[in-house]
C-alpha cells in the first residue's frame, strides 16, 4: 500500500510539473519555470509580507501603492486567505525569513516537486549548513527536512496543484514577454571575457510569485559543471484581469539585460571577493559608516556584503561599456553612486580597469581595487 501511495504521489508531481512551460534551451540563455520555487515564493509572501502589503494606503518607497505593486501575490493571498494562520505555512515562512536565497532556492531546485519534496543523498552538507549554523550535518538535514515537510503539508492542504492549471495562461504570457526581451546574443560572452571564467549553463527564471522587485543570483553544482540562474519576480505593475490584455511586468529588455548581468555577476564576483583576506576587508571598514544607513535599507548590513555588492555593480558598469552601451553604463554608474549610495564605485572601476589593461586577471584586479579602498 505504501508503494502504491508513493507511486501515486510521484505521478501527481510529474503532472503538476508538466503544467508549467518546459525549459526553453533554444538560446544562449535558457528560460525555466520551477514548480517548487513558485510555491515557496507565494508562501513567503503570504506568510511574511501580506499583512504589510494589505495595510490600507501602504506604499512603496517610490509612492506606488503596495496593493498594486504586489497585485498577483495579493490576488493569490485573497484566494488562499483561509490558510494564512496555518502552522505549517508559518513554519515554512519562518525558515525563509531567516535564511538567504542561496540557502533556500538551490535546495528547492534539487528535490522532487511538492508535495513529495524530500532530502536525498545527492544534497551536500555545505548546501544546507545554514539550516543549523554551527551544528553537525545530521541536524542541518533534520532542519531542512522540517522545512520541506512543512511546505509539502501546506501544499496538500491548499490543493495547490490546481493553481498550476488555473494559472497556465499567465505562465504562457510570461514566457512570451521574456522571449521578446531576452538579452542580446553575445551578452554571456561579454561577461565571460570580463571575468575570465565561464559556467556550464545560464538560465533566467521568471517567477509570478516571487514578490515584485526581488531578484536572486543562484548556482547549482552538477555532474557536468556549475549552472547559474537569475531568479526574479515581476518588475512592473501587472494587468491580470482576463477581460483585458494580460501584462505581467517582464517586457523590458534593458532591465532584463541589466538584471541578468547583475545576478549572473554574483556567481562570478562573489567567490573572488570572498577569497580576499579578512584583514584586507577590515582595514577599510571605516568606509562603511558614511553609507551604513543606505546600505542597511538595501539589505547590506555588513561592510563585507557592501564591498561584494560594490564589485558586482562595478562589473555591471564595465560590461555595459564593453558591450557598446556607453549611455547605459553612465546611467548605471550615476544611479548606483547617487541614488543607491555605492559611492566607492569610481575608485573600484578605475583600479580594475587599470589592472586589466596591464594584463592582470580579474582576481588580481579585485585585490588591487580592494587595497585602494
Automatic annotation (TrEMBL):
Record Pfam families: DUF4932
Protein name: DUF4932 domain-containing protein
Organism for this UniProt entry: Terrimonas ginsenosidimutans
Species lineage: Bacteria, Pseudomonadati, Bacteroidota, Chitinophagia, Chitinophagales
Amino acid at each position: 500500500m505504501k508503494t502504491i501511495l508513493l507511486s501515486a504521489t510521484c505521478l501527481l508531481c510529474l503532472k503538476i510539473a508538466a503544467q508549467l512551460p518546459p525549459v526553453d534551451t533554444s538560446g544562449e540563455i535558457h528560460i525555466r519555470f520551477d514548480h517548487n520555487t513558485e510555491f515557496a515564493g507565494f508562501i513567503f509572501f503570504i506568510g511574511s509580507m501580506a499583512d504589510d502589503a494589505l495595510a490600507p494606503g501602504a506604499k512603496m518607497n517610490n509612492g506606488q501603492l503596495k496593493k498594486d505593486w504586489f497585485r498577483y501575490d495579493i490576488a493569490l493571498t485573497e484566494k488562499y486567505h483561509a490558510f494564512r494562520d496555518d502552522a505549517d505555512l508559518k513554519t515554512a515562512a519562518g525558515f525563509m525569513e531567516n535564511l538567504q536565497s542561496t540557502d533556500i532556492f538551490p535546495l528547492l531546485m534539487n528535490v522532487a516537486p511538492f508535495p513529495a519534496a524530500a532530502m536525498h543523498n545527492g544534497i551536500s552538507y555545505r548546501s544546507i549548513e545554514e539550516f543549523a549554523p554551527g551544528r553537525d550535518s545530521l541536524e542541518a538535514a533534520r532542519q531542512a527536512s522540517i522545512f520541506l515537510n512543512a511546505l509539502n503539508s501546506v501544499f496538500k492542504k491548499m490543493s495547490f496543484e490546481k493553481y498550476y492549471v488555473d494559472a497556465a495562461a499567465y505562465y504562457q504570457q510570461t514566457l512570451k514577454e521574456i522571449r521578446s526581451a531576452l538579452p542580446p546574443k553575445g551578452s554571456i560572452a561579454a561577461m565571460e571575457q570580463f571575468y575570465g571564467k565561464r559556467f556550464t549553463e545560464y538560465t533566467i527564471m521568471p517567477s509570478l510569485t516571487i514578490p515584485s522587485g526581488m531578484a536572486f543570483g543562484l548556482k547549482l553544482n552538477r555532474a557536468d559543471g556549475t549552472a547559474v540562474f537569475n531568479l526574479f519576480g515581476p518588475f512592473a505593475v501587472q494587468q491580470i484581469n482576463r477581460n483585458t490584455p494580460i501584462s505581467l511586468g517582464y517586457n523590458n529588455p534593458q532591465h532584463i539585460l541589466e538584471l541578468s548581468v547583475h545576478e549572473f555577476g554574483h556567481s562570478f564576483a562573489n567567490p573572488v571577493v570572498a577569497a580576499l583576506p579578512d584583514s584586507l576587508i577590515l582595514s577599510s571598514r571605516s568606509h562603511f559608516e558614511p553609507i551604513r544607513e543606505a546600505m542597511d535599507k538595501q539589505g547590506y548590513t555588513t561592510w563585507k556584503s557592501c564591498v561584494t555588492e560594490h564589485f558586482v555593480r562595478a562589473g555591471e558598469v564595465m560590461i555595459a561599456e564593453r558591450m557598446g552601451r556607453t549611455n547605459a553604463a553612465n546611467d548605471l554608474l550615476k544611479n548606483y553612486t547617487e541614488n543607491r549610495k555605492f559611492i566607492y564605485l569610481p575608485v573600484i572601476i578605475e583600479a580594475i580597469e587599470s589592472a586589466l589593461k596591464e594584463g592582470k586577471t580579474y582576481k588580481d584586479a579585485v585585490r588591487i581595487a580592494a587595497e585602494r579602498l
